[in-house]
Amino acid sequence: MGKLVVIEGLDGAGKRTLANGLTEALHAQGRSVTSHAFPRYGQSVHADLVRDALYGKVGDLSDSVYGMAVLYALDRRGAADQIRKDLEEHDVVLLDRYVASNAAYNAARLHQDENGEFVEWVRALEIDRFGLPVPDLHLLLRVPVEVAAERAAKREQDDDSRARDIYESDGGLQARCGVVYDGLAKINWLAPWQVVDGRSNVKFHSLLEPLFTP
């Protein structure tokens, strides 16, 4: 059975770059790896509804923290069987965002922390009720909010298809979300967490080494 590794962090933190680096490092070790990114825009009706809501195309849906959280969760539920299949066929399954994103962003919207009722509600919904696979490791890519915002803005400038949504454009939300992420990492929510400094050179091989140490 393979290992389920989740990359978390603020919008603009560099999660995709980290995922690519880890994939190359794992291939260099002779390990098989596959990856998924959430939300699964273009693949899941629930993810597409999320995208529409984040750009103000579904009335006041985005105002509902719990409504948005359920859509995010249903997107992952739709991918659960594929994730389980991938874990049977690969050494590592890399996920760009997972359950912790739902917990961090929406707890931040409610001005709650990692010990608040919303984080527990997400765990009960996605893990207990929907039966999503539990990660073996979270990698929290930490960068200052200002750095993440600059990267997101540059990404938007360079690629018209990646315009910032209402979450990405809300600096206060991003700052609160970063605090919740730090709290989740501190308590090792759901699984062990490693914090990765997004401003320094990352030693990709060392990040996953504990997973394969007897």
Automatic annotation (TrEMBL):
Chain ranges of the Thymidylate kinase-like domain: 7-162
Gene Ontology biological process terms from the UniProt entry: dTDP biosynthetic process; dTTP biosynthetic process; dUDP biosynthetic process
Molecular function terms from GO: ATP binding; dTMP kinase activity
InterPro entries assigned to the protein according to its UniProt record, in alphabetical order: P-loop_NTPase, Thymidylate_kin-like_dom, Thymidylate_kin_CS, Thymidylate_kinase
Key words of the record: ATP-binding, Kinase, Nucleotide biosynthesis, Nucleotide-binding, Transferase
Reaction(s) catalysed (UniProt annotation): dTMP + ATP = dTDP + ADP
EC number, as in UniProt: 2.7.4.9
Enzyme class: transferase
GO CC field: cytosol
Transcription regulation found in the keyword field: no
Purpose: Phosphorylation of dTMP to form dTDP in both de novo and salvage pathways of dTTP synthesis.
Entry similarity comment: Belongs to the thymidylate kinase family.
NCBIfam families from the UniProt entry: PRK07933.1 (NF005923)
UniProt name for this protein: Thymidylate kinase
Species annotation: Lentzea aerocolonigenes
Gene assigned in the entry: tmk
